[in-house]
């Protein structure tokens, strides 16, 4: 077998030898937590109450100032980039085929168990008559959004079918027990795309070129799948010491802080101007994530205890805030309207109480998410052989 060129040998050298192992990157958890908070608050502010009378966000400049921090589409792009980073980072640090197989087997279980738990909560609320979104939607003038959820009857079969199958496909919104989980189709598809690439990584001579090509193909389709190769590149850059090098440069800090702020503003407003055009949110999401990784100030913020705690409950927040909106938020808004109390201060109070309730039940939901991780490991142990050849073994064999 001919010797590989020097550049190829370096590109495929064990990355753990090129960059020393480091602690858990808490800024990833913190950034994910704040992104999920942004999505939840975006649905409360701009979904439930945006058309309420009288307007609860006035004057207009307050709305303009709030919008960059409540950019739901930008937050979803960040969420996908972080998924691509978190899924590929262990492989770049310690290449292992066994790890990839386990991730492939675990991914479905890891996502489906919490989805089933959250869907069950919505199902129980429906059967108990505790969903009020249909009654509240005309009063809040959001019939095309809030009023379009949970149409028709739902059975146990619908619950199981949605949680295990339909959630990963583009089904009708009105028949979804958790309509906000439309992103799970892209999450699963992007995860599988990433894992397929990593399985082939050892046979690819130009790793960066292959990942960038995948990125450009997805970007040409204006698809959120673009975020997964961006996350892979971030994880690869970290493993090779790229972000550590950037943090040592004097100009990095101001550039990263300015880039982070501009990405929040420009990405969010472009999404409002060109609705349905995802490129601004994708690019802005990439700038947000890389700015955080390169800035010591942003790392400290997203690694502080509050940020890390939000990161721990981020997936439950994302899963459960729909149940809060269709039950508590809609019900309290309807009750306030019936008593003539639905004023702007009351709307702010309802938003704050809804957010607090979502955070509270998300904390209670953590055992379900932890169980999903154990269930994924049990599934792997059941399905996989005890030993599988690692990449190093495969390399010596060739």
Helical segment count: 19
Low-confidence stretches: 1-22, 389-398
Overall pLDDT, averaged? 85
Q: By helix and strand content, what is the structural category? A: mainly alpha
How many separate structural domains? 1
What coarse outline follows from CA principal-axis ratios? Answer: globular
Order of helices and strands: HHHHHHHHHHHHHHHHHHH
Largest sheet: none
Helix content: over 70%
- The share of residues in extended strands comes to under 5%
What's the Cα radius of gyration?
22 Å
Distance between the termini: 8 Å
Q: Work out the number of β strands.
A: 0
Notes on the structure:
By secondary structure, the protein is mostly helical. The protein has one domain. Helices cover 72% and strands 0% of the residues. It has helices spanning 6-11, 15-18, 26-48, 60-66, 72-93, 97-127, 133-140, 156-164, 183-200, 207-220, 227-239, 242-247, 252-273, 279-294, 296-303, 305-312, 314-338, 344-383, 391-397. Helix 6 (97-127) packs antiparallel against helix 9 (183-200), helix 7 (133-140) crosses helix 17 and helix 13 packs antiparallel against helix 14. The radius of gyration is 22 Å and the shape is globular. Residues 1-22 and 389-398 have low confidence and may be disordered.
Features:
single chain, 398 residues, mainly alpha
What layout of secondary structure does this protein have?
Layout: H1 6-11, H2 15-18, H3 26-48, H4 60-66, H5 72-93, H6 97-127, H7 133-140, H8 156-164, H9 183-200, H10 207-220, H11 227-239, H12 242-247, H13 252-273, H14 279-294, H15 296-303, H16 305-312, H17 314-338, H18 344-383, H19 391-397
Helix pairs in contact: 3-5, 3-15, 3-16, 3-17, 5-9, 5-11, 5-14, 6-8, 6-9, 6-17, 6-18, 7-17, 9-11, 10-11, 11-14, 13-14, 14-15, 17-18
């Amino acid at each position: 077998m001919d010797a590989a060129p020097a550049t190829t040998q370096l590109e495929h050298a064990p990355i753990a030898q090129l960059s020393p192992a480091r602690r858990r990157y808490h800024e990833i958890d913190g950034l994910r937590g704040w992104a999920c908070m942004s999505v939840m608050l975006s649905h409360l502010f701009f979904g439930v109450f945006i058309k309420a009378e009288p307007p609860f966000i006035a004057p207009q400049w307050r709305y303009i100032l709030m919008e960059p921090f409540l950019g739901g589409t930008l937050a979803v792009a960040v969420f996908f980039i972080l998924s691509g980073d978190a899924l590929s980072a262990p492989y770049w640090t310690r290449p292992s085929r066994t790890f990839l197989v386990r991730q492939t087997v675990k991914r479905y279980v890891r996502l489906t168990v919490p989805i089933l738990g959250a869907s069950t909560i919505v199902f129980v609320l429906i059967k108990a008559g505790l969903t009020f979104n249909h009654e509240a939607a005309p009063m809040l003038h959001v019939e095309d959004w809030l009023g379009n959820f949970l149409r028709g009857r739902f059975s146990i079969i619908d619950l199981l079918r949605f949680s295990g199958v339909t959630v990963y496909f583009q089904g009708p919104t009105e028949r979804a027990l958790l309509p906000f989980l439309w992103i799970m189709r892209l999450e699963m598809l992007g995860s599988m795309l990433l894992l397929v690439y990593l399985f082939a990584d050892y046979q690819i001579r130009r790793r960066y070129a292959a990942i960038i090509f995948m990125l450009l193909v997805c970007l040409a389709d204006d698809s959120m799948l673009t975020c997964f190769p961006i996350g892979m590149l971030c994880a690869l850059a970290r493993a090779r010491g790229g972000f550590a090098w950037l943090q040592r440069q004097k100009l990095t800090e101001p550039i990263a802080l300015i880039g982070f702020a501009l990405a929040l503003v420009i990405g969010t407003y472009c999404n409002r101007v060109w609705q349905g055009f995802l490129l601004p949110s994708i690019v802005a999401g990439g700038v947000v994530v890389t700015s955080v990784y390169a800035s010591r100030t942003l790392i400290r913020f997203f690694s502080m205890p509050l940020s890390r705690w939000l990161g721990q409950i981020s997936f439950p927040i994302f899963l459960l805030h729909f149940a809060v909106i269709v039950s508590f938020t809609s019900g309290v808004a309807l009750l306030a309207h019936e008593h003539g109390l639905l004023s702007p201060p009351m709307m702010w109070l309802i938003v704050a109480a809804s957010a607090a309730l979502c955070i509270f039940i998300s904390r209670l939901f953590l055992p379900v998410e932890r169980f999903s991780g154990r269930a994924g490991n049990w599934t792997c142990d059941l399905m996989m052989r005890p030993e599988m050849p690692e990449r190093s073994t495969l390399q010596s064999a060739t």
